[in-house]
Design a protein that fits this description.
Layout: H1 2-11, E1 19-25, E2 28-41, E3 44-55, E4 60-63, E5 68-72, H2 81-85, H3 103-110
Antiparallel strand pairs: 1-2, 2-3, 4-5
Length: 111
């Protein structure tokens, strides 16, 4: 119980923060919150959110007003509408981890 309360206190700073970016690294969800911050890495500079949350477990992002699921972890493994529309599409040859091929990549762009 104590651990649960501590975890809630640690992520409570994300409540009400603006979402800057939703993306992925393989099947790990990557969400940037808060103001944009420019950071320097060994690869150069990039813009990130004040807070970044990495999630690697089952998850859903829901729209409370529309009472629907906007994104979910299983979207990583489903082909995008564009990919499914190709008449040569086959689930046997579908490669979920290629950028732009899965439903998550398609939906995250609209966010």
């Amino acid at each position: 119980m104590c651990e649960e309360k501590t975890a809630l206190c640690e992520i409570s700073c994300l409540i009400g923060q603006r979402i800057n970016y939703i993306g992925r690294a393989s099947n790990m969800l990557d969400i940037h919150f808060g103001e944009n911050v420019v950071v320097t890495t060994r690869l150069g500079t990039k813009t990130v959110g004040t807070y970044t949350l990495h999630v690697q477990c089952p998850w859903r992002i829901i729209n409370l007003s529309k009472k629907g699921i906007h994104l979910g972890s299983l979207d990583f493994y489903s082909p995008s509408d564009k990919v499914k529309a190709d008449q040569n599409f086959s689930y046997k040859s579908f490669t979920w981890d290629l950028r732009g091929q899965n439903l998550f990549d398609e939906k995250a762009q609209k966010w």
